[in-house]
Design goal:
- By secondary structure, this protein is α+β, with helices and mostly antiparallel strands.
- Among the domains are: 145-250, Beta Barrel (Thrombin, subunit H); 256-349, Roll (Pdz3 Domain); 357-456, Pdz3 Domain, CATH 2.30.42.
- Helices cover 22% and strands 37% of the residues.
- Strands 1-2-3-6-5-4 form a six-stranded antiparallel beta barrel. Strands 8-9-10-13-12-11 form a six-stranded antiparallel beta barrel. Strands 15, 16, 17, 18, 19 and 20 form a six-stranded antiparallel beta sheet that branches.
- Strand 4 and strand 5 form a beta hairpin.
- It starts with a helix and ends with a strand.
């Protein structure tokens, strides 16, 4: 009898605990119902020319290529489709999504919640921020309500609506893990990090707070496997809308430019430079003929504030400079030789990638981070020693698509996606156009031996 009473009490406690636990979870139904009608599915179609398969290839391989001469095969069109998400920001049909969702597309179709399918045109794109502005011909469309990402707090609930793997209008939820994250390949965006499950097809969809407001664009994940691993990143909606206004007015995006190479300040470096704490951006290089050089910045200066706003991490500096108006005068608080001073500089226009060699060498590591590696040009002597005419060396590598494929520091990349690489600039141009989620060929030279690896750029 006592045992039965004890079991009954334990069961009651368990039921009450379960009920209270569920009561603590938020109800997302209102947030979803108010936003889902303005979320769209995007199908981007692209056409590429590829060589037709040689019908005698197997015979040639079997006979060692001696009996059957290789023949030039005609180019044939290959049609491919990629899926993504987006959301409507105006009743007359403006839609926000990611640039990588529509990059290189010859045709873009948008599917609305009411099942209408309309062709969209690209108003403008911003590769650096991974933003694309589309337009469809329609009226009185449902729109999302935009929120203020600055009011987001770490630990708050957020949710995503999108079409992962084509399963349209799927809803996932999580919390804000961090704010102001800087990713190496997009250093001008202060990303919102969440643990909201994001998969291929979610890209371009909205990140929504519990007030039903869009606070970001789901852009990318960090993964060693290509699938979701708990690290998702969204572009803050205020950053995106600044891009939208520029794309609407001029069709292009301007970003502020200083012209320095920077690095983080460690505790040891803070002691060396007489700083009270490890914060700020240490100037490792000043590029010639730039706003930084004209303002008198020097290597070894530590930038601790921009217009009075403290720089905690070095990655915050390009974000703040990038949002400053080109031609405006801004102030930097720096520490030089243990003394604090303020200098002014006129904000330059961020050069297009590849406009000058010095900028290429600094930005090469950023573009390379799409694959998870740092690269550099080979010297003439190195080319001669390796008996190659071009290529770039992998100077450093970290977890990413390249590491997963077996690429190592010291490898020389000779060809990527069937295109020869002569210089860092060649590499940058090719990487920016790599397809997402599709394996591509990389030919490398490793200690004099040539090898081929397959690399897949994650979405």
């Amino acid at each position: 009898m006592k045992h039965s009473v004890k079991s009954w009490c334990e069961m009651v406690v368990l039921i009450l605990w379960t009920t209270l636990s569920w009561a603590d979870l938020p109800d997302f139904t209102g947030v979803v119902s108010s936003n889902a009608p303005a979320v769209v599915n995007i199908t981007a179609t692209s056409k590429t020319m590829t060589s037709a398969q040689d019908p005698q290839a197997l015979l040639r391989q079997f006979f060692g290529g001696q009996m059957l001469p290789q023949q030039t095969q005609p180019q044939v069109p290959q049609i491919s489709e990629s899926l993504g998400s987006g959301f409507i920001i105006s009743k007359d049909g403006y839609i926000l999504t990611n640039n990588h969702v529509v990059h290189g597309a010859s045709k873009i179709m948008v599917k609305l919640e009411d099942r209408r399918e309309l062709q969209a045109k690209i108003i403008g794109t911003d590769e650096r921020a991974d933003i694309a502005l589309l337009k469809i011909e329609a009226h009185d469309l449902p729109v999302v309500k935009l929120g203020n990402p600055d009011q987001l707090k770490v630990g708050q609930w957020v949710l995503a609506i999108g079409a992962p793997f084509g399963f349209d209008y799927s809803v996932t939820q999580g919390i804000v893990s961090a704010k102001g994250r800087s990713l190496s390949n997009e250093s001008y965006v202060p990303f919102i990090q969440t643990d909201v499950p994001i998969n291929p097809g979610n890209s371009g969809g909205p990140l929504i707070n519990m007030q039903g407001e869009v606070v970001g664009i789901n852009s990318q994940i960090y993964s060693r496997s290509g699938g979701f691993m708990g690290l998702s990143f969204a572009i803050p909606i205020d950053v995106a809308m600044e891009v939208v206004e520029q794309l609407k007015s001029s069709g292009k995006v301007e970003r502020g430019y200083l012209g320095v190479g920077i690095q983080e300040v460690t505790k040891d470096l803070a002691d060396v430079y007489g700083l009270p704490k490890a914060a700020g951006a240490l100037v490792a290089k000043v590029l010639p003929d730039t706003p930084a050089s004209r303002a008198g910045l020097k290597e070894g200066d530590v930038i601790v504030a921009f217009n009075g706003h403290e720089i905690g991490l070095a990655t915050e500096l390009p974000q703040q400079v990038g949002r400053a108006h080109v031609g405006s005068t801004q102030k930097l608080t720096i520490v030089r030789g243990g003394k604090t001073m303020i200098i002014s500089f006129v904000v330059g226009d961020l050069p297009a990638e590849g406009d000058d060699n010095a900028q290429n060498n600094l930005n090469a590591q950023g573009a390379g981070h799409h694959l998870g590696l740092y690269i550099r040009d080979l010297t003439p002597e190195e080319k001669q020693n390796l008996n190659v005419t071009g290529g770039v060396e992998v100077s450093q590598i970290y977890d990413g698509p390249a590491a997963s494929a077996g690429v190592r520091a010291g490898d020389v990349i000779l060809r990527l996606n069937h295109q020869n690489i002569g210089t860092v600039q060649d590499y940058l141009n090719i990487v920016r156009k790599l397809p997402v989620g599709k394996p591509v060929e990389m030919v490398i030279n490793r200690q004099g031996n040539q090898a081929i690896v397959a690399i897949t750029l994650g979405q």
